[in-house]
Write a structure and sequence with these properties.
Number of helices: 20
Radius of gyration: 26 Å
Strand order of the largest sheet: 2-1-3-6-7
CATH architecture of the largest domain: 3-Layer(aba) Sandwich
CATH topology of the largest domain: Rossmann fold
Helix content: 40-55%
Largest sheet: 5 strands, parallel
Structural class: alpha/beta
Strand content: 5-15%
Shape: elongated
Number of strands: 16
CATH class of the largest domain: Alpha Beta
Distance between the termini: 57 Å
Length: about 450
């Protein structure tokens, strides 16, 4: 297998030598160039797996080289070398297609991490990504364009701000970016920023040392450490308090964190993806979200379309959701009547795909035959997204939920339902057909409820 080959462009001989030595120790062949003209000749004559370029060159700007590589060698990852504190230039470079950036003075640990990710990225092909992008389901133009953007962004290390309405699938998009990129072998760590108590936020993000505060009985790993080498997805990032926004900005810019109670910083290698259903630009104008953090997170913005804008995808989504529900409960997948499909097509879906999942799960429970009808959908009662404990549509990936989201009334009702069903089954000696009749529900509905309540469903 041929050794990977890199092109290094910098007008300082010492930097070229440092970079060459580091890459050669990683078993990577290196060519060097002192200016843009020499770089263009090398690119025309050779094939590379990686390019490192300084931003200030004697005959031009490193941004021009990034654009040239994007236009002519779009599978070639190019990382830019910036002066200390030149964050604006680094962000601009990533906006036009740079894989990542590294600041002078160069930290060799960060450099090696960057090179490893870049080489992994160069091995990702469009064909592989399109074939594997199975988390997103749809044939509409908006979904095809979204998948195309995800494939491109998966190769980059640039922060991505994912915008879209609640329930539209923002976490699904973030997971797809992670799973199709060079970090896929490491953790994807999602967190709901609005669900962490403010007094615990710094500890949850950065970890803490034993004895650093009352109740800190042992060292605790934070979210950044949990996502090391992988991706940290900040859902509902608009809910971060201002003081935490400052600390998060520093962690992202310095690629380092300090656990609570620690005397030293630790380097981190984490890609940041974030999302919110709120208008971040408006929050910045109102002074509720820091402009510098927004600028740092919003390197690339990706909009997820609401379900009502992609109704061509509805039949595929319905089939996928019902297949999943049926498999979970070990039952046959029901058909959907023409009337039910027509009603779903005409519905606005204020809760988007999450609401569609809720509607179909309820209809799956209620239908008495092998076909879901319009009546089973109960759309008149579905003007707002339904939340249930333990359903497939809850944000199970989030590490935290606020106490308001624990749905204690639902838990109470589930326990009451369990007691009623158990009592009825015992009265009829576990004859499920008779129990369903006494309960006034279909046999199918009883089977579903037994599985949902963890009561088993052995025949």
């Amino acid at each position: 297998m041929a050794k990977p080959r890199a092109l290094i462009i910098d007008d300082e001989p010492d930097i070229r030598e440092l970079l060459s030595m580091t890459l050669e120790r990683m078993d990577i062949d290196c060519d060097t160039a002192a200016d843009l003209a020499e770089a263009h000749r090398s690119l025309a004559e050779n094939q590379y797996n990686l390019c490192l370029t300084d931003m200030k060159l004697p005959d031009g700007n490193g941004l021009d080289l990034v654009k040239h590589i994007q236009d002519n060698f779009n599978n070639l990852p190019v990382a830019v070398i910036t002066a200390f504190g030149s964050m604006d230039i680094a962000i601009e470079a990533m906006k036009v297609g740079a894989f990542d950036f590294i600041s002078k003075p160069i930290d060799l640990g960060n450099l090696r991490n960057l090179i490893t990710k870049a080489l992994a990225s160069s091995e990702i092909s469009d064909e592989d990504n399109i074939e594997n992008a199975t988390r997103l389901i749809g044939i509409s133009d908006s979904i095809k364009n979204l998948i195309k953007s995800i494939n491109k962004l998966a190769r980059s290390q640039a922060p991505v701000y994912i915008s879209g309405e609640s329930g539209s699938g923002k976490e699904l998009v973030a997971r797809s970016i992670h799973e199709l990129g060079p970090r896929k072998e490491n953790e994807f760590v999602p967190v709901n920023c609005g669900a962490i108590p403010s007094e615990l936020m710094e500890s949850e993000f950065f970890g803490h040392k034993k004895g650093s505060f009352t109740g800190a009985t042992h060292d605790k790993q934070g979210l950044f450490q949990a996502a090391e080498g992988g991706t940290l997805f900040l859902d509902e990032v608009a809910d971060l308090p201002i003081d935490m926004q400052v600390k998060l900005l520093r962690a992202i810019q310095e690629k380092a964190i300090r656990p609570v109670g620690s005397q030293s910083e630790m380097k981190t290698d984490v890609r940041i993806l974030c999302a919110t259903h709120k208008n971040l630009e408006e929050l910045v104008r109102q002074g509720d979200f820091r402009q510098d953090l927004f600028y740092r997170l919003n390197v690339i913005q990706l909009a997820v379309p609401p379900l009502r804008k992609r109704l061509d995808d509805l039949p595929l989504l319905i089939d996928n959701i019902l297949t999943r529900i049926a498999e979970i409960h070990g039952m046959e997948k029901p058909k959907v009547s023409r009337g039910a499909l027509k009603s779903l097509t005409e519905y606005e879906f204020p809760g988007n795909i999450r609401e569609l999942e809720n509607i179909l799960e309820r209809a799956f429970t209620l239908c008495d035959s092998d076909e879901i009808t319009e009546d089973d959908l109960q759309l008149d009662a579905s003007n707002a997204p339904v939340q249930r404990v333990g359903s497939a549509s809850t944000n199970s990936g989030n590490h935290y939920q606020s106490s308001q989201n624990h749905n204690s009334i639902d838990e109470y009702l589930a326990e009451v339902e369990r007691e009623i069903i158990l009592e009825t089954l015992e009265n009829v000696r576990w004859n499920k057909t008779l129990a369903a009749k006494k309960l006034g529900i279909s046999f199918r509905s009883l089977r579903y409820r037994l599985v949902k309540l963890g009561l088993g469903d052995e025949e």
